[in-house]
Amino acid sequence: MSKVLVITTSLRARSNSDLLAQRLIAGARDAGHDVELISLKGKEIRYCIGCLSCMKTQRCVQRDDAAQIADQVKNADTLVFVTPIYYYGMSGQMKTLLDRMNPLYTTDYRFRKVYLLSVAAEVEADTAARAVSGLQGFIDCFPKAVFAGALFCGGITDAGEAEKKEAELAEAYDFGQSLE
């Protein structure tokens, strides 16, 4: 049993990302994992200012919600990032959060497996490729971690539309069950 941290990054009400994340979480819990969810809705996460103080102190000089999220990321075995695809990339708030995880770089972080669930209106198989690539760039900075898999759910546009997408809901559940 792993401690799984799911971070949803959509700020939209009735987010399709969140709806699919709930199915992923159900699958992971049914597989025996201890799952915690963080939503970036309502969180204050400022941009990294590039001062690199965190490389010495393992803490960011900024006081916002990123520090607590970083602690939760550090202590999870498995990470799952959930993002809508905007302009064929991860959401800006996800990228901002990843930038703010820099204090973890020199710590003894626990996470080893990192996954991505993404949702978009577009349906082409390569729609999420840049989001995967961006997340891989983050993972490459953590030598004990690996990109362990991705699920892309395309053809979902309107808020709450995922509630009616039986195949994608089932895929998200199965993806959750497959987490390591």
Name the helicity range: 25-40%
SS element count, helices: 6
Distance from first to last alpha carbon: 8 Å
Name the average pLDDT: 97
Low-confidence stretches: none
Largest sheet: 5 strands, parallel
Strand content: 15-25%
Category from helices, strands and their pairing = alpha/beta
Question: Which fold name is given in CATH as the topology?
Answer: Rossmann fold
What is the global morphology?
Answer: globular
Beta strands, count: 5
> Class, according to the CATH hierarchy?
Alpha Beta
> Looking across the biggest beta sheet, what order are the strands in?
2-1-3-4-5
> What is the alpha-carbon Rg in Å?
16 Å
Number of domains: 1
Q: What does this molecule look like?
A:
- It is a single chain.
- With 180 residues, the chain is of the alpha/beta class.
- It has 6 helices and 5 strands.
- The chain has a single domain, classed as Rossmann fold (3-Layer(aba) Sandwich), CATH 3.40.50.360.
- Helix 1 crosses helix 6.
- The relative contact order is 0.22.
- The mean pLDDT is 97.
